[in-house]
Amino acid sequence: MKPTYDVLRVDAPDWARVPSVKLTHQPWLLPCAVAASAQACHDGERLFVRLEAEELPVRATLTDPLAQVCRDSCLEFFLAPDAADARYLNFEWNPLGTLFLGFGEGRPARVRQIVRDVNALLDVHPFETDKGWGVEFSVPASFVRLYFPGFTLAGEAAGNFYKCGDETQAPHYLAWAPLSSAQPDFHRRQDFGTLRFL
To answer: In the predicted model, is pLDDT for residue 66 greater than 80?
Structure first.
């Protein structure tokens, strides 16, 4: 059964009051000491996301807009706004705030999106903690509507939260919604959980 996460409507994010989910599914490698959690809320116009990892040491090396940030310590959010549309957006971040943004239907058909000013669009804030790192960002509904014209922050969407690190000291793959592929692959729409906008 697919998990459901309630994305609460707020005036402004107060992360101490926003429900958190753990990324507990690790289907492909032996469990490691890395842990991660995710939170999301919205104000009707923007979707706010906070991802946090317990991970030491942290690998943060990539700054190029075309970098594959999954090689570093990486936190990811995938959003599929329309149940009748197999396409989705994937936001992938490393601890330096370097973004990999993709759009499409699955791994082979995904198209890389280059954002001229990531901070202006997504208001990204990477942060460090005693146990690791995290990132906060927000996605304007108006931006999502460039890809899905009917999108509003209401009803239901599909999505997943991920943590990975292909070239970290302890390579790992973690997810919120369970994963069903035999090999590492986050790009499977059928594995997304339900996001319910309240």
So the answer is: yes
Q: Which of 161, 163, 129 is nearest to 49 (CA)?
A: 161
Strands 46-54, 21-22: parallel, antiparallel or unpaired by DSSP? unpaired
Identify the pLDDT of residue 182: 81
The candidate with the shortest Cα–Cα distance to 161, out of 192, 132, 185, is: 192
Asked whether the predicted pLDDT for residue 20 surpasses 90, the reply is yes
Q: Residue 25, class by beta-carbon neighbours within 10 Å (0-12 exposed, 13-18 middle, 19+ buried)?
A: middle
- 3-state DSSP assignment of residue 161: strand
**Mean pLDDT, range 24-46, rounded to an integer:** 92
Structure tokens that stand for 144 in this block: 């999502």
The predicted-structure confidence for 88-130, as pLDDT tens digits, reads as follows 999 999 999 999 999 999 777 789 999 999 999 999 999 999 9
Report if pTM > 0.90: yes
DSSP string, 140-173: EHHHHTTTSTT--SSEEEEEEEEEE-TTSSS--E
What token pair was written down for 113?
């999106």
Task: Indicate the residue type of 182.
Answer: A
Burial class of residue 182 in the structure, from the number of CB atoms within 10 Å of its CB (0-12 exposed, 13-18 middle, 19+ buried): exposed
d(CA 195, CA 177): 11
State the residue for tokens 């090689």.
71
Measure the CA–CA gap between 118 and 99, rounded to whole angstroms. 8
